[in-house]
Amino acid sequence: QVQVVESGGGLVQAGGSLRLSCAASGSIFSINSMGWFRQAPGNEREFVASITSGGTTDYADSVEGRFTISRENPKNWVYLQMNSLKPEDTARYYCNANWGRRLSWGQGTQVTVSS
Fold first, then answer.
1. Rounded CA gap, 74 and 63, in Å?
2. Could you give the C-alpha distances from 91 to 30, 51, 78, in angstroms and in order?
3. Whether residue 96 has pLDDT greater than 90
4. Angle at 7 between CA 77 and CA 88, to 5 degrees
């Protein structure tokens, strides 16, 4: 089993920055990749960014160039540095871990960007 817990959300003005953290625990040796998704009220959950155990990253077009995902393998922490935030980035952000063809999700952390 793998568990993930997010932290670091909050309220920020447009143009500001936030860094989200995700801590994985349990059978961390089995984790292949970790990622971030987000869900705004009334919308479906959408992909934001991901990173493999080898360090390969992928981003949604809407955040490319503004967000950076990174990973500390010994600690199995994943970070999402979010810069130049926009009101449309407001959502609940969820971390997941892909392990053994299974996904573990955290409870999410709220990010609110005011205009």
1. 27
2. 29, 21, 19
3. yes
4. 110
